[in-house]
Amino acid sequence: MLITRHAEAVAVLSDSRHVPPPVPQDAPDGTLAWLRAQVSRFASGPAHAARRRRVEELLASIDPAGLRAAARELAGEPVATVSTRAFGVSQVEAVATAAAGYLSGEGGPEADAAVRALLPLGIPMITILLQAHAATAGLITAALAREDGITPVEDLLHETLRHDPPVRVTRRDGVEIDVAAVNRDPGVFPDPDRFDPGRGATPHLTFGHGVRPCPASAHALAIAAGYLEGRRA
Ligand code: HEM
Fold first, then answer.
1. 220 C-alpha to center of ligand 1: Å?
2. What's the CA-to-centroid distance between 207 and ligand 1, angstroms?
3. Is the CB of 97 inside a 6 Å radius of any atom of ligand 1?
């Protein structure tokens, strides 16, 4: 079932009976498939709650203002490296390689080697780095395409998230949420196809909603804002 209406998306995402598609649990230790069986993202029920809590605790120890300042200094670096480096991690290649197969589960021996190289960081930190990688780069890239150097970066980012969501689909068992369509539901967003950074706060669903929204929206926004500020400077 494909969901394109905002109210239906909110209902599905708020209902714990709608779980993410399960991942295999029997993969050899230290592989990408094994990692996917360890993280909150693909777990449900009590395992999800416990793993999510550990990620939230780690995120709570990382000040978004510090990430913003770090990202500002990285404005001359490739967008794809910014989130990893803002978190103070230098293994940008390993993060990129592991992240490429993280959502799909498709990764060969190189992805497995990348996961093993990252293991000393611990599962919560690896989760943060892999979740951050493509989504944050996608947000920055989409915002740069709209950048006018004048609009406050927060407004630019907020409307970019609504209008050009870098994560376009969220899946639950048997259900696919078309985030891009939901964010342009005409019953919720007036004149939805117009890119208007002056809208103020909107109930876009780009960071998810309900049972398992992105726990790092403040961190992601801080990194993106810092990078844009650095570019403007
Ligand atoms: C610093 C950057 C980021 C970090 C550390 C991060 C971290 C995470 C984590 C750990 C989860 C899993 C939550 C759980 O299992 O309960 C998650 C989920 C999610 N993230 Fe992020 N994220 C980042 C950036 C972003 C960005 C830029 C977007 C969107 C543009 C995004 C959208 C989402 C969404 C939609 C989910 C929920 C997926 C679902 O409902 O199945 N994240 N994020």
1. 9
2. 6
3. no
Structural domain for 211, as ranges: 2-232
Q: Whose CA is nearest to atom 20 of ligand 1?
A: 214
pTM for the predicted model, two decimal places: 0.97
CA of 21 to the centre of ligand 1 (A): 16
Q: What is the pLDDT along the chain (233 residues), one digit of tens a residue?
A: 999 999 999 999 999 999 999 999 999 999 999 999 999 999 999 999 999 999 999 999 999 999 999 999 999 999 999 999 999 999 999 999 999 999 999 999 999 999 999 999 999 999 999 999 999 999 999 999 999 999 999 999 999 999 999 999 999 999 999 999 999 999 999 999 999 999 999 999 999 999 999 999 999 999 999 999 999 99
Task: Give the chain's domain count.
Answer: 1
Residue 102 CB-density burial (10 A; 0-12 exposed, 13-18 middle, 19+ buried): buried
Cβ–Cβ < 8 Å for 132, 58: no
Distance 190 CA to ligand 1 centre (A): 26
Which residue from 163, 222, 148 is spatially nearest to 196, judged by alpha carbons? 163
CB 58 within 8 A of CB 70: no
